[in-house]
Design brief:
Length: about 290
């Protein structure tokens, strides 16, 4: 259960969306909300005392906007201004406050979003030990308008992917949402040097059987966490991030919940490929759950 939410804000166009989703989750769960802005120590080392004062004033303004948005939603928050290396400061603050959910907003297009994913958010995702919710830059900014009616949980059959199931079930229960569990068979990867045309039907059937077992295993975990949660399962073929992105669009998915990595580990597994590409391509929040959660 989510009890302590940490929202990291930076004054970007993604901030109001991140705040809206954090406030919606807080309303649904009764969680407390901390809002933190980190003044990049690397910047303060390069500027004069006057400019550093400007950075701190801007930080206070950013926090004031977040607090105002929370007040409009009737949610009490605590704001915090700190400095340091942003990703490290966020994770340290989350540990100090016993946060069990970190929320960060994605930036807009034109390369900024990709840069964010390659720096602060990417490091928080890779190094954190609590679930991280990343929100799109152009989603709802009104907490009351945030709707989570359908949740997608991808699985590759690994334990690291299946660890997302309890968190997904908890969110689904709080928002009365249905959960779709999907496994994508990538024949180009599974077949090794052979193309799809050279793969035997027996081999494909084996892959489909393994994928079906994987989705049913995650479905069972969902039901174990919340027997009342509605679950749908599906097995598809293709490139995982492309198929999952299409599934999100075609099935009105409101939230993706997935493990931080799959079979290949955190560096080259789901976090390094599928999750990162989903973060860059889908217009819905993505909640990444690490093994330690």
């Amino acid at each position: 259960m989510t009890e302590h939410i940490l929202v990291a804000v930076d004054g970007s166009d993604g901030q109001p969306v991140a705040m809206a989703h954090a406030l919606a989750v807080a309303t649904a769960t009764g969680a407390t909300v901390d809002v933190v802005h980190v003044i990049d120590r690397g910047l303060t080392a390069l500027v004069s005392m006057t400019d550093e004062g400007t950075l701190r004033e801007r930080g206070r303004e950013i926090l004031a906007k977040a607090e105002s948005q929370a007040a409009d939603a009737g949610v009490s928050v605590e704001t915090h201004l700190t400095d340091g290396t942003p990703s490290t400061a966020i994770l340290e603050f989350a540990a100090d406050r016993d946060s069990d959910l970190v929320v960060v907003g994605r930036h807009g297009p034109h390369g900024v979003r990709e840069r964010l994913l390659g720096s602060v958010a990417d490091k928080v995702l890779r190094k954190g030990s609590v679930p991280v919710l990343t929100t799109s830059y152009d989603d709802e900014t009104d907490p009351e308008a945030v709707a989570i009616e359908r949740v997608l949980v991808p699985t590759d059959g690994s334990e690291a992917a299946a660890v997302a199931a309890p968190t997904a079930a908890t969110f689904a229960g709080r928002f009365d949402a249905t959960v779709d569990v999907v496994s994508v068979i990538d024949l180009l990867v599974e077949a090794g040097p052979f193309d799809a045309g050279g793969v035997s039907e027996e081999f494909v059937q084996k892959l489909e059987g393994n994928a079906a077992d994987a989705v049913e295993g995650v479905a069972d975990r969902l039901r174990d966490t919340d027997p009342d949660v509605g679950v749908e399962t599906a097995v598809t073929r293709g490139r995982p991030h492309e198929e999952l992105s299409a599934y999100v669009a075609d099935n009105d998915i409101d939230l993706v919940v997935m493990g931080s990595h799959g079979h290949s580990g955190v560096s080259t597994g789901l976090l390094g490929t599928v999750t990162t590409r989903l973060l860059q391509s889908v217009g819905v929040p993505v909640l990444v759950v690490p093994p330690e959660a």
